[in-house]
């Protein structure tokens, strides 16, 4: 098969000896659950198919049909095609991609079989053809067990399966003397493009055969070369040729100037053109030097986004002709310069659009689940085919081999890559072989997890801010100081790889009603049988919305979606900014461009519509950004408010401008110049928390970089309270330890004796005495221990929230509808006002008949309804769970202080 010949299908000149007949459109389709089709000779032109056969449109995946969403196994396709006279040309039946195993017959003759769900394949079918009408039949097998098959995120525990002919089908008529490969390797040191040609001689005499190679731009020939096609022996069928195109004044391909050259290769014999081969290419280099990424020799920082190529109803298949154009254009508008096509080969039309618009692409194969001989072989074959298909695409700059050890140690029961020397050696050998096969790109061995031999030291880190802001900062500091901790072994690598945070993100619920309108009801993936984790399972979420207090708090789903999306933006803004202010980190890849089925962590929703923060995101993610980092977003009026201002310049030029800032009545400015690819930091020490008339009041710290041709802005909320305005509650409070001392220091009447004259009791351990106090009419508040733990000897059950890196926690939302928080935070949504107070556990198993939920908590599709602040009727009294970490914060933290005081007032009243 002539794999490389299929790399790019551009319009050829009218007089081209090549012809393509499009076979997309109506095909007959039937499932074959008992695998009887081959024995029943369904491949024969006049075979009778079962009555359940139907007409479908190719390309498609059979899961697009509601009755086949969960179907795996065997299916058949067939159609007839009228083939014109082929003269002296060879005819190829070409498939863009079929998942997973395809066997093909033409006029009842078996012409070939292919395994692999993502890459093109073809069969030479000239001998099987007849004049006029011809019959094509395709049997497809996609087994239920994918563990040894490269499948990416299909099926358990992720997304909808994809089976069948999901990319285009065509008949390609090609001259027998033809170019089969044209592999272009730019050399920017000499401004040349090295061209490796493979030529099938056919029946022509090679003595009179010549090649002509031309590169055009805007229709004009800018450089060319030619020479004889020579063969070492008369019986040689194929010839390999090396030549080079020299450029006098080339324009290099880059995201800012994605100049493409049109390549044409002609084979000429006695002045007759026997073949024309066309492709496009760009002159660009991409490498790692001195621990940095270099594009065309210049430093570049990755501002990337993950993209998985799933679409509502059509799955892998783009729903519109302009789908990829829109995706890449929007990604560029949002400030991204790279897209990581996640865990499956990119659609070739996507790469063509990335070439045209100037979007860098990090590409990776689909991985399997288990590490076996078969899975290794199929992965390597897929990588080789992927490189052959996309070698000439300048947009592709990174290959990954594995993602998070999927297929090389991730499976339960398998030894991990961290300790398995056999896997380490295999991966190091594979890394070296891919680097030798493609010298124009860099290679990541195992994205996000243990590295062995790699050009990129990347990390997958899922934190959420402000809930775990300090932990995120600490984690990044550790990564910068100890990047070698991410290596399973340094035996194969020099360790001088750029550091990239190649997955991070936070969830924000998209427009569910729009999804239902699009699907005409609940999407089929709402209730996939394999979605056993309730966070992922959307089925029944309407009931969970009304059975919890969410309906009372938000009123409708639109309001919940709005609040959740703004929470998503607040989080990812801080996550990205902390990365960008660290020059030792060379890039990031945000998860992800759009929601995918149940996973709603996209900048866009699943329909590729904008979320509420769309217009604000580019300022965070653009080539130039301003970052404002208050030492704390919360403080007492008049206290010192240190703020670090940082200007990040990822552009290719030095920036000059004026940095301005203001908060309340305070303001200032400073002239700055920021060299290209540098981070400039200015620390402002003379700010103070602004005055507040009552409660905790929010103001905005506004910062702008003005001048030159840029106007970049950012803002941060600042929460302040007047110490003198915070009045201690008129109640007798039982408390011990540090919290007791802090309450007493704040003017609260504190006792260490749990007697009858106590109005409210705080305790981190619900003893028998404390339990009896509540049952007999007292108000008991269960608070965390000094390390944030919630002891379980209480009427409440508790759901632990991860303290550090956790994909799970990024799915969560804290919300509120309580006068205890009036004036403290925005209606419904918690944010930076609770900085340093977010809990490590929440009270669960709530009961609306006895519980007053002041602050709620949910995860994913409205599951694990819980609370960090809930009051329950208990005997003749009450029991409250207050899991916010107030014990060490009362008195110093205005929100902790005011919240505790209000709670005591409420309970004692």
Description:
By secondary structure, the chain is an alpha+beta fold. The radius of gyration is 32 Å and the shape is globular. Helix 3 links the parallel strand 25 and strand 26. 17% of the residues lie in helices and 35% in strands.
Write the layout of secondary structure elements.
Blueprint: E1 19-22, E2 25-31, E3 54-58, E4 73-83, E5 89-95, E6 98-99, E7 101-106, E8 109-115, E9 121-124, E10 132-142, E11 164-165, E12 169-175, E13 178-187, E14 192-200, E15 209-217, E16 220-228, E17 238-246, E18 261-269, E19 272-281, E20 286-289, E21 292-295, E22 298-299, E23 302-307, H1 323-333, E24 338-341, H2 348-357, E25 360-363, H3 373-390, E26 396-403, H4 421-437, E27 442-447, E28 457-460, H5 469-481, E29 499-504, H6 512-519, H7 541-547, H8 550-554, H9 557-580, E30 585-590, H10 614-621, E31 624-630, E32 634-636, E33 643-649, E34 655-663, E35 666-674, E36 678-684, E37 696-707, E38 710-721, E39 732-734, H11 737-745, E40 749-751, E41 760-763, H12 768-775, E42 779-782, E43 797-800, E44 812-816, E45 828-829, E46 841-844, E47 851-859, E48 863-874, E49 877-882, H13 894-908
Parallel strand pairs: 23-24, 23-30, 24-25, 25-26, 26-27, 28-29, 29-30, 32-38, 39-40, 39-41, 41-42, 42-49
Antiparallel strand pairs: 1-12, 2-3, 2-4, 4-10, 5-9, 5-12, 6-11, 7-8, 7-10, 13-14, 14-17, 15-16, 15-18, 18-19, 20-21, 21-22, 31-33, 33-36, 34-35, 34-37, 37-38, 43-46, 44-45, 44-47, 47-48, 48-49
């Amino acid at each position: 098969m002539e794999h490389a010949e299929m790399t790019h299908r551009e319009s050829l000149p009218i007089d081209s000896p090549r012809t393509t007949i499009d076979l997309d459109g109506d095909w007959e389709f039937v499932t074959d659950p008992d695998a009887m089709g081959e024995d029943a000779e369904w491949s024969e032109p006049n075979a009778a198919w079962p009555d359940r056969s139907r007409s479908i449109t190719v390309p498609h995946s059979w899961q697009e049909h509601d009755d086949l969403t969960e179907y795996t196994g065997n299916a058949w396709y067939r159609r007839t095609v009228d083939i014109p006279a082929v003269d002296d040309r060879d005819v190829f039946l070409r498939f863009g991609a079929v998942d997973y195993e395809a066997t093909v017959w033409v006029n009842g003759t078996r012409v070939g079989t292919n395994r692999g769900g993502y890459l093109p394949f073809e069969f030479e079918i000239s001998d099987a053809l007849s004049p006029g009408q011809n019959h094509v039949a395709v049997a497809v097998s996609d087994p239920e067990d994918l563990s040894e098959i490269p499948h990416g995120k299909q099926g358990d525990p992720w997304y909808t399966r994809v089976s069948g002919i999901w990319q285009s089908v065509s008949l390609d008529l090609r001259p027998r003397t033809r170019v089969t490969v044209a592999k272009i390797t730019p050399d920017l040191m000499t401004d040349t493009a090295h061209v490796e040609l493979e030529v099938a001689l056919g029946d022509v005499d090679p003595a009179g055969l010549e090649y002509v190679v031309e590169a055009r731009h805007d229709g004009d020939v800018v450089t060319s070369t030619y020479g004889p096609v020579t063969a070492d022996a008369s019986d040689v069928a194929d010839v390999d040729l090396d030549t080079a195109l020299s450029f006098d004044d080339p324009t290099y391909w880059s995201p800012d100037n994605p100049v493409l050259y049109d390549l044409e290769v002609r084979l000429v014999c006695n002045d007759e053109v026997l073949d024309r081969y066309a492709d496009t290419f760009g002159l660009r280099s991409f490498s790692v030097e001195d621990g940095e990424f270099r594009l065309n020799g210049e430093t570049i920082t990755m501002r990337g986004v993950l993209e998985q190529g799933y679409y509502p109803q059509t799955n892998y298949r783009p729903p519109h002709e302009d789908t990829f154009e829109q995706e890449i254009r929007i990604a560029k508008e949002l400030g991204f310069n790279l897209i990581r096509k996640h865990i499956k080969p990119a659609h070739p039309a996507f790469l063509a659009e990335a070439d045209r618009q100037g979007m860098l692409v990090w590409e990776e194969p689909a991985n399997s689940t288990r590490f076996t001989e078969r899975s290794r072989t199929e992965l390597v074959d897929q990588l080789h085919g992927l490189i052959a298909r996309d070698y000439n695409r300048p947009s592709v700059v990174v290959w990954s081999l594995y993602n998070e050890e999927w297929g090389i140690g991730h499976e339960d029961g398998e030894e991990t890559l961290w300790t398995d020397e056999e896997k380490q050696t295999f991966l190091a050998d594979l890394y070296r072989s891919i680097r030798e096969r493609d010298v124009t790109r860099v290679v990541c061995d195992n994205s996000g997890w243990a590295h062995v031999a790699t050009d990129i030291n990347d990390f997958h880190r899922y934190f959420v801010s402000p809930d775990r802001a300090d932990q995120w900062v600490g984690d990044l500091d550790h990564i910068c100081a100890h990047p070698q901790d991410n290596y399973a072994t340094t035996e194969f690598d020099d360790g001088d790889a750029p550091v990239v945070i190649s997955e991070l993100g936070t969830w924000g619920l998209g427009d569910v009603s729009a999804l239902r309108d699009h699907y005409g009801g609940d999407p089929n993936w709402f209730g996939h049988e394999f979605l056993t984790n309730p966070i992922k399972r959307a089925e029944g979420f309407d009931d969970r919305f009304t059975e919890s207090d969410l309906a009372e708090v938000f009123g409708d789903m639109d309001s919940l979606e709005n609040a959740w999306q703004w929470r998503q933006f607040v989080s990812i803004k801080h996550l990205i900014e902390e990365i960008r202010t660290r020059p030792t980190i060379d890039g990031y890849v945000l998860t992800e461009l759009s929601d995918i089925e149940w996973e709603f962590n996209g900048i866009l929703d699943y329909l590729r519509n904008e979320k509420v923060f769309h217009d604000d995101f580019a300022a965070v993610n653009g080539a130039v950004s301003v970052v404002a980092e208050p030492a704390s977003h919360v403080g007492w009026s008049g206290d010192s408010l240190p703020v670090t201002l940082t200007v990040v310049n990822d552009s290719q030029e030095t920036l000059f401008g004026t940095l301005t800032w203001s908060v309340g009545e305070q303001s200032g400015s400073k002239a700055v110049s920021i060299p290209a690819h540098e981070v400039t930091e200015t620390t402002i020490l003379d700010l103070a928390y602004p005055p507040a008339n009552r409660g905790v009041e929010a103001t905005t710290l506004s910062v702008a970089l003005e001048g030159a041709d840029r106007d970049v802005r950012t803002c941060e909320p600042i929460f302040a309270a007047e110490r003198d305005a915070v009045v201690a509650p008129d109640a007798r409070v039982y408390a011990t330890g540090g919290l007791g001392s802090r309450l007493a220091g704040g003017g609260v009447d504190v006792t260490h004796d749990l007697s009858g004259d106590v109005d409210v009791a705080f305790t981190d351990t619900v003893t028998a005495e404390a339990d009896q106090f509540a049952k007999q009419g007292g108000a008991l508040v269960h608070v965390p221990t000094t390390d944030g733990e919630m002891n379980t000897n209480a009427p409440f059950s508790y759901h632990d929230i991860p303290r550090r890196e956790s994909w799970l926690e990024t799915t969560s939302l804290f919300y509120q509808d309580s006068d205890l928080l009036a004036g403290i935070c925005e209606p419904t949504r918690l944010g930076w006002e609770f900085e340093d107070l977010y809990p490590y556990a929440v009270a669960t198993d709530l009961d609306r008949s006895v519980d007053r939920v002041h602050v709620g908590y949910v995860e994913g599709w409205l599951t694990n309804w819980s609370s960090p602040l809930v009051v329950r009727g208990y005997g003749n009294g009450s029991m409250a769970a207050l899991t916010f970490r107030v014990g060490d914060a009362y008195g110093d933290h205005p929100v902790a202080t005011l919240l505790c005081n209000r709670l005591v007032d409420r309970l004692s009243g």
